[in-house]
Amino acid sequence: MSAASSQSWNNPQDEVAHLRDLLERANTAYYCDADPFMADSEYDQLLQRLADLEAAHPELADVSSPTRRVGGAAIDGFSSVRHARPMQSIDNTYDLDGLRAWAARCEKFLGRASSLLADPKVDGVAISLRYENGVLVQAATRGDGAVGDDVTSNIRAVRAVPLRLRTTAQGSATRLEVPEVLEVRGEIYMPLAEFQRINAERSARNEPELANARNATAGTLKSLDPAVTAARRLSFVAHGRGEQRGGREFTTFSAFIAALRAWGIPTNSESRACARVTDAEEAIASFERRRETLPYAVDGMVVRVDSFADQEALGSTEKCPRWIIAFKYQAERATTRLVRVDWQVGKGGTITPRAAMEPIWIAGSTVRHATLHNIDEITRKDIRLGDLVEVEKAGEVIPQVIAPVVSARTGSEQPIHAPTKCPSCSSMLEREGPKVFCVNPACPAQFRERVKWFVGRDQMAIDGLGERLIDQLIDAGIVRGFADLFRLDASAVAVLTSEAQLASGKTSQRKLGDKTAQSIVATAAEAKGRGLARLLGSMGIRLLGVTAAKTLARAYPDLASLQAASAADLEALPDIGARTAEIFVQNLNSPLVRAAFDDLAAAGVDLTSRDFAAAAAGAAESNGASALRGKTVVLTGTFAGHDRRTLTEMLEGRGAKVTGSVSRKTDLLIAGSEAGSKLDKALELGVEVWDEARIDRELSE
Asked: Which are the catalytic amino acids?
């Protein structure tokens, strides 16, 4: 035990306060100041001493104690959080000409050049940390930019994230003013050394290795067990500002970043102030030469206008602020040997080739597999088995085979041919252009992928059923068809291994438990009533996606009437062609699909159409009284009182057709806050524009 904790204390309260302060200062020194003063072993000893004291004196409990980082009880799921300010994405460029064009646009709009700031684009998961009076109260993922998942329990387990902001300046007694509300945007990431450690342990246990550090980070944050997050030693770096109330007013982003450092929040020491765009170009070139030596993955440099006033003046498009751009470095390439081609079966029966290769280290991870796209691409590139091939990570995430190294051929390489039989069910395959299909609806591999799609948030939304749990249910014979998801027995589900434990790779694996299992069963029961459109769009029926499912559900009141329709009937509907109509009729009336629908009905799933009733109600309005009926509508921006899906459904219920882009066929644009290029185009074309208050009035009538 260190001298810091072995001294005499008058009471436990004083020792607890001392240990909490000491441990948080150690975290700040390590993650924020890059000046550690304590060995890991000493930190662990002090942390254990604090935990023992808190256990012996529960009246001293504090949600911000460093002991809360080691992981509390597993949670049942994540609730949704609406961001106080949208978390927008950043526009990209892959060359210096694009960077210069962006800078020129900013200068033209402002009428002058503006100072810039360049900092590394850490490859992680975007997060928003909310502090109230200096205490961390909430952490949320980006989600769709407007609404994310509350992952506070997991973020508390990340030592790099301060639970309380520092209120005195480092090395002095100067008091620091802390805002009443401060939202810090940043990146949660997995250090490369930690990623390699985890994969080495998984390899030793003969378990599949994690694909890359970013995906591993995302999977860790989705864990329902904070102990998994604590064990994976994630880190954090700040790179943006959300809501702020009270405290000092900042005029520049660089001043804001300096304040974050003073408060104990990690920022990137590689940030560079740039008086002009040529300085940013130099920073980009200089950093590229060093980025491979850093302890974390980086895929580019972010360049932004430093002045907050200039940022406000430049504004945003629908998705991206105009005052910031990400320069993305060219994807890293490496060469390795192509050993074999695995043909994988998707939920729609598409057979896609995946390269199995000798392992190589590229862009922060060990790569053993890469996409080959399709048989036409393989032929065009003349890729052969046994070739030495160039591999690139597209967007630094998805590995793909770029080309063979023809000069390295020995003559032993073999041509690659598309399979003629399904690798899962041995059915004969069909060819359509560059794609190869298994058309057997009973194909086991297709079914497995369809079930994983079926339970997704944007489909039937059965929360808690991740991919690994689906695999366990199918492998155990509990789920043999979609309807079995609605007959799940909580006791059978409770003994499955939790998704979090499978992700962690622990040898002593925790079961789901009764509470989580009951929650899954309850969500499945709720999903029975989602209606025909959601059901059709969730089953993975070929060509039958969300838009087509809504079109069919608006035209037919229930499944029986839809199955009775002819190809000519369906072809008469909007956006459904002759070939698509034939495929729909064929698939919807196939014996296996009919049996699946019968089984779903027997399990109590609603096969009637909510959309038909809404469309009929709209049609019944006298003289087409709804101002929305028959209108082509586009949504843009962020809406305070609605999420996009709900608002779209409400508009479609009034007889509108909601599309994604503005054109001369658009009748109405509904613009929320942060509306961008779509609003500009609508005004240019003379399209009528409503704000959120106007659409609320229409929908309430």
From this structure: 121
